[in-house]
């Protein structure tokens, strides 16, 4: 029997610490690590399924080549053949176009372990290439908080237990961040009041004291309505002039432009509720708002978050232990970056395409065109918008490589499939984008079949390239996984973690030694050093300098219903582990009254469509959904067009400042509905 320490590398707030058990080299169980202070020995059902996933008959164990795209005729090939095909294509394209720009990488959130940055490193080692930048998750909110606070940081979320009032706003931790729930319950046990703001009665709402239903994309105005009440009731922090910039202008805007009648009309929240909640927020200390990613997936998402930050600042909740406005952080991601930055072989710039409009922007590249695409830790043909453009892009490409664990919508279009290892089969290091813990993932078993880690694949491709044409790639051609990860702990990260030497991280996950409460001394990292209600940086980026309300998009006559597709409890985006998440039916949740209006009852078959596509659904009326919204929770649906065939590529207002491109305003999707 052997015990090993792993970290769950999924795109999830929690980054859980796992203890895995092996017998005679076989993984036999995984369980939560009881010594981890945040995840406290518990795993969610998605990870508890990991043993089955590692040995699943569906897992791809060998490099494979597809006879023709979408044919499903895959034949096993050797690693040598696969590496040679890739290296030759890279060199051919470089000769043909005289540049490496036709080579493109699209990578995101399959595995957030830092050794997966080897793929970026490999591409940098080739020369200037075409890259996906930005994020489909959280960009607008990250920019908004960076404008307001100066850096993107949040307090230790464990301290939410000390709060006396918690507002869960556009976040669904009961499904998407399950380890935060016990902390919220601890606060409830101490007497805290918890309110959930969502567009529908979510699993989180069911666990709180009060549910406030907000019309999609209007939360910014609601925050401004609350702020207006604080001003009227003189509940604003008397010290604002000592640590904020532009509070007078903001208060003037509230007085002159915001009315509770308008706020109620647009948001759907009654005036007495606005007043009561605002008074409670202004009078309770510490009070914490957790703003989630759900509320910023709109064309006004960044403005929304700036309005919520401004509400927190006005009431004096910033810097309070257990209070503040929490969204996420990347201060615990200050790794050295050695892996993704090998020496640049030429002085050309990479061609950067917004990950949320990748196919459109790639199609628009003509000089030179994109000719080879590597998809790693991504499933864009399921998760992106504008899938028709993806089909067009695929026709233009000479070679599509997918590295993954399983076949996916994206691998259906690929020429080559490279099998990767799971986190039980390779070394890695992981941080969370929420809590303060950082740790090492150690391999528990040997790679299953002929799978290789993404890092090994990058070394091997570089090796093959250099064999064919010496000097054609500056990425290392071999190495040691463990040594590579230890090199990523540079002086800055060692300091953050309070370690003297990198090896100490091998012992146990470490909590970053940041003070528990961010902005406690009320000095900010903005250009003015103050909290900025009024932001020159925003104005310079052609955005409003104040957090004013800008409305979201409106439905049209032909597509009168807004389609929301939030995350599901049993999957991480397109990755599905638990059997109950598999379904051949697309369930459409909607208000019973709305169903009646369309002549529909539970179990009826219906069709939703818009100018982009159509999907057949089964009707499931649910209380607690607004009349202008229909919901499909994101999950793997067998045999149906992908959910995203209904989604375009609307962009959020912000994201460029910190992440290089605006985010995915995917909640600005409208459909029509008809009984079949
Ligand atoms: N189980 C599970 N966990 C996950 C994921 C998963 O797929 N499954 N995905 C991971 C990833 S990639 C991400 S980005 C995070 C996201 O996790 P969260 O931050 O929780 O964000 P979402 O799940 O997108 O949306 C949260 C809630 O916002 C609501 N919402 C939508 N529009 C609005 C609005 O206009 N106003 C308000 N007030 N609420 C609104 C939705 O109905 C939903 O209940 O979760 C991560 N964790
Ligand atoms: N309709 C709709 N669309 C959405 C969203 C939504 O809520 N609704 N959410 C959006 C959001 S927030 C996000 S973050 C994106 C997520 O979109 P993606 O980043 O594409 O995430 P996944 O769908 O999880 O696909 C990740 C792939 O990586 C693979 N993988 C896992 N581990 C590894 C590994 O170690 N190496 C390699 N090479 N591959 C690995 C998985 O098997 C999977 O096929 O989707 C966005 N799209
Ligand atoms: S998916 Fe999230 S909650 Fe589940 S084990 Fe992984 S990190 Fe933890
Ligand atoms: Mo995400």
Please outline what is shown here.
The protein is α/β, with parallel strands linked by helices and 676 residues long.
Question: Can you characterise this structure?
Answer:
This protein has 676 residues and is α/β, with parallel strands linked by helices. It has 4 domains: 53 residues, 2-Layer Sandwich (Phosphorylase Kinase, domain 1), CATH 3.30.200; 198 residues, Rossmann fold, CATH 3.40.50; 214 residues, Dimethylsulfoxide Reductase, domain 2 (3-Layer(aba) Sandwich); 89 residues, Barwin-like endoglucanases (Beta Barrel). The protein contains 22 helices and 29 strands. Strands 5-4-17-16-15-6-7-14 form an 8-stranded mixed beta sheet, sandwiched between helices. A 6-stranded mixed beta sheet has the order 25-27-26-29-22-28. The longest helix is centred in the N-terminal third of the chain and has 19 residues. The protein is globular. 56% of the residues are buried. The model has no long low-confidence stretch (mean pLDDT 96). The structure holds ligand MGD (2 copies), iron/sulfur cluster (SF4) and molybdenum atom (MO). Molybdenum atom binds next to loops.
């Amino acid at each position: 029997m052997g015990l090993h320490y792993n970290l769950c590398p999924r795109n999830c707030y929690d980054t859980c610490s796992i203890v895995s058990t092996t017998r005679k080299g076989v993984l036999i169980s995984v369980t939560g690590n009881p010594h981890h202070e945040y995840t406290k020995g518990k795993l969610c059902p998605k990870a508890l399924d990991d043993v089955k996933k590692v040995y699943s008959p569906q897992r791809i164990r060998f490099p494979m080549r597809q006879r023709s795209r979408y044919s499903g005729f895959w034949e096993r090939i050797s690693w040598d053949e696969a590496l040679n095909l890739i290296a030759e294509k890279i060199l051919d394209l470089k000769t043909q176009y005289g540049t490496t720009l036709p080579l493109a990488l699209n990578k995101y959130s399959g595995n957030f372990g830092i050794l997966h940055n080897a793929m970026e490193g490999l591409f940098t080692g080739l020369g200037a290439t075409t890259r996906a930048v930005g994020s489909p998750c959280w960009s607008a909110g990250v920019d908004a908080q960076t404008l307001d606070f100066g850096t993107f940081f949040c307090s230790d979320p464990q301290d939410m237990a000390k709060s006396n009032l918690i507002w869960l706003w556009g976040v669904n931790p009961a499904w998407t961040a399950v380890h935060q729930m016990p902390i919220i319950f601890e606060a409830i046990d101490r007497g805290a009041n918890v309110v959930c703001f969502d567009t529908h009665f979510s699993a989180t709402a069911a666990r709180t004291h009060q549910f406030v239903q907000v019309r999609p994309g209007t939360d910014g105005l609601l925050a401004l309505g609350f702020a207006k009440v604080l001003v009227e009731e003189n509940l604003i922090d008397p010290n604002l002039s000592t640590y904020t910039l532009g509070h007078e202008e903001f208060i003037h805007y509230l007085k002159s432009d915001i009315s509770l009648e308008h706020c109620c009309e647009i948001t759907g929240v009654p005036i007495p509720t606005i007043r009561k909640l605002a008074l409670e927020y202004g009078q309770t200390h510490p009070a914490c708002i957790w703003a989630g990613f759900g509320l910023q997936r709109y064309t006004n998402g960044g403005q929304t978050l700036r309005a919520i930050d401004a509400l927190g600042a006005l009431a004096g909740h910033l810097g309070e232990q257990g209070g503040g406005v929490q969204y996420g952080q990347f201060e615990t991601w200050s790794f050295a970056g050695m892996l993704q930055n090998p020496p640049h072989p030429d002085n050309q710039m990479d061609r950067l395409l917004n990950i949320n409009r990748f196919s459109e922007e790639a199609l628009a590249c003509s000089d030179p065109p994109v000719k080879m695409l590597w998809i790693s830790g991504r499933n864009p043909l399921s998760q992106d918008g504008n899938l028709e453009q993806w089909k067009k892009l695929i026709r233009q490409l000479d070679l599509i490589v997918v590295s993954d664990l399983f076949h996916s919508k994206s691998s259906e279009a690929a020429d080559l499939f490279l099998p990767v290892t799971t986190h039980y089969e390779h070394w890695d290091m992981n941080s969370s984008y929420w809590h303060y813990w950082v740790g090492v993932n150690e391999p528990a078993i040997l790679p299953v079949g002929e799978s290789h880690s993404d890092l090994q694949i990058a070394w091997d491709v570089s090796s093959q390239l250099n064999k064919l044409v010496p000097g054609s790639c500056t990425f290392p051609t071999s190495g040691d996984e463990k040594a590579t990860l230890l090199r990523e702990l540079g002086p800055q990260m060692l300091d953050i973690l309070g370690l003297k030497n990198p090896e100490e991280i091998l012992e146990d996950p470490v909590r970053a030694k940041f003070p528990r409460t961010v902005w406690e001394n009320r000095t900010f990292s903005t250009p003015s050093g103050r909290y900025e209600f009024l932001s020159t940086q925003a104005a310079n980026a052609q955005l409003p300098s104040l957090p004013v309300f800008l409305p979201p998009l409106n439905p049209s006559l032909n597509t009168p219903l807004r389609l929301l597709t939030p995350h599901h409890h049993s999957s991480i985006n397109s990755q599905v582990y638990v059997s109950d998440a598999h379904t051949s039916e697309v369930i459409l949740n909607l208000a019973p009254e709305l169903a009646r209006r369309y002549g529909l009852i539970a179990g009826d078959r219906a069709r939703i469509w818009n100018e982009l596509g159509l999907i057949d659904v089964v009707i499931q009326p649910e209380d607690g959904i607004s009349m202008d919204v229909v919901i499909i929770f994101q999950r793997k649906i067998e045999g149906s067009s992908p959910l995203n065939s209904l989604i375009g590529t609307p962009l959020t207002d912000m994201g460029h400042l910190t992440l290089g491109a605006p985010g995915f305003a995917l909640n600005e999707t409208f459909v029509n509905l008809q009984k079949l």
